[in-house]
Amino acid sequence: MNQYSPSAKEEIIATKIIDAAYHVHKNLGPGLLEKIYEVCFCHELKKRGLDYKRQMDIPIKYDNIIFKEGLRLDVLVEDLIICELKAVDEINPVWEAQILSHLKLTNKHIGFLINFNVPIIKKGIKRFIM
Fold first, then answer.
1. Is residue 32 part of a domain?
2. Of all helices (H) and strands (E), which one includes residue 84?
3. Whole-angstrom Cα distance, residue 36 to residue 70?
4. Residue 1 is assigned to a structural domain of this protein
5. What is the pLDDT of residue 1?
6. Can you give the pTM of this predicted structure?
7. Fewer Cβ within 10 Å of end Cβ, the chain: N or C?
């Protein structure tokens, strides 16, 4: 199986995403609700010139039927990169499986699972490539 190799554009966007998460965490710290981090994270994305969509519903195609009750992505950046945001003590492995499923079902290649409830944000960011 070939590993996807991100384009230069995707790498630039990914770097801006990490920088946005860093700035939110630096200013707010851990311990707040996920929704607060999401609003501030999207504000930081906008400051970096990135287009995003919040709480985006994605229909699912299954058995040649399209179901509108499909996925809900926390943040989709530049229609390329999925960001799932958390504010939890521990990352549940099912959330890692969830982001991989989201990538597969949306035909996207890069995703981030970002947990803001950590002392050091570097330990709260996990990148996925599919």
1. yes
2. strand 81-86
3. 24
4. no
5. 47
6. 0.94
7. N
In terms of DSSP bridges, do strands 65-77 and 52-62 run parallel, antiparallel, or are they unpaired? antiparallel
Q: Is residue 118 a part of any domain in this protein?
A: yes
Q: Is the pLDDT of residue 95 over 90?
A: yes
Diameter of the chain measured on Cα atoms: 46
Using only the alpha carbons of the chain, give its radius of gyration: 15
Judge whether 119 lies within some domain.
Answer: yes
Count of domains for the chain: 1
* Local structure of residue 91 (DSSP, 8 states): -
> What is the average pLDDT score of the chain?
95
How many Cβ atoms from other residues are within 10 Å of residue 53's Cβ? 14
Reduce the DSSP state of residue 98 to 3 states and report it: helix
In the structure encoding, which two tokens stand for residue 40, read together? 């501030």
Could you tell me the residue range of the domain that residue 53 belongs to?
8-129
